[in-house]
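input
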Amino acid sequence: MSFPVAKKCFLAFRSLTLAALLAAAPFAAHADVDSDYQAGMSAFRGGDLFSAMEPLRRAADAGHPHAQAVLAYILDLGEYNEEAYRYYKLSAEQDFPDGIYGLASMTISGDGVEQDIEKGLELLKRAAALGHAYSWNALADALLNGMLAPPTEQPYAEEILTKSAESGYIRSIDALSMAYSKGMLGIAPDPERAELWTKKAGDAKAAAANQ
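output
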């Protein structure tokens, strides 16, 4: 899932009161959890996040893991961190990758919970193992920024960068190109792979420039 709105673009949302954000109609009004989820997602995709919250919250409180993750994201945008963390945690407890990723992000940054980078990185690894592309990218950033163990002590550096690069993340593609060219990040030189990833880096940058 790709979330379309950045926190910095969402200042107007923060002016809403917490009571208004979390107000929910009686659960009897909508017994169909999937219908609530679909209604919430329709409003969410249309950019009407406030209207999305009521049906998403009904679905989330009924245990729908995707609704929990999206509601948490909206709350996170509004800086209602404790509520966001709670819903991300509920989603993560059901092994929903977006929920685990959101929980990891908040744990690493210390939003709504005591900061714990090591725990957050472990959560990212858990989401990545479930095939979550954004988590592979976040792990690649952590590796390249020195948040993970030093590359020579990081046996999964090549896997992390490859999984991330395969999703089209240009920073990882560049890192693999350099690593295979010069022998970096604990990765042995490999001229054939260096040529392959150098070409992919050029193609990715050209595609990005044309967007």
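quick obs: The two ends are 20 Å apart (CA to CA).
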